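>> received
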Amino acid sequence: MFDLDGVLYPASNGYLENVRDNQRKFLTEKFNLSLEDARRVRKEAFEKHNQTLKGLRSLGYAVEHDEFTEYVRKGYDEYLSCDLRVNKTLERLKLACSKRKGKMVLMTNTAEKQARKCLGALNIDEKLFEDGIYGSSFMGDNAKPMPEAFEMVCEDIGVSPKECVMFEDSFKNLKTCVALGMGGVFVAGETLEMELGGGGEKNKDKSDKGELNAVANVVVESIGDLFEVCPELFD
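>> returned
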């Protein structure tokens, strides 16, 4: 089970900062907020639920799902590009998974439509995740790191959490996964301290590397490092 942002591409490439800028612009245009207020509201919304859309709704903003996700995710093709090392690793892992009669899915807090656009820009074949691409349309009122979100996906693909391994860049999400019995691979990115918050967000829960190592089964800088770090996944 793979997260998208900060996992299938590095959070440091500028795209997620572009998404956050778009979120602030959306608030200024849709609700006539000043840029300063938009920054404050967006930050509060994300910190509250680890998903800006759900956070905005909980703060009383009437945000329409498709309108919001389409607006804030624009510009993906300017920032995302193919990483052959990541793509080859995913292909090898899919082959190993298929041999075990296992499944490989994508689980993200953004909309499935926007996730597919990102996969296209990354030149990642959607067939690698033919067992399921799960996003905010499927999860509805739930979102990572809520345990209900992970349980919904597990139920839909017909497995228990204990049969799953989650690849995440958010420590909040990873802690929920492990608490449910899932294996956890943390994709740290180039700057571990930054990535502990997930998606390039600054860490808010005072997590440190020691706590991370106590929770995660494996820590890698990039998905492309998986074969060298844990070759047993590819047996």
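>> Residues 193-197, 202-206 have pLDDT under 50 and may be disordered.
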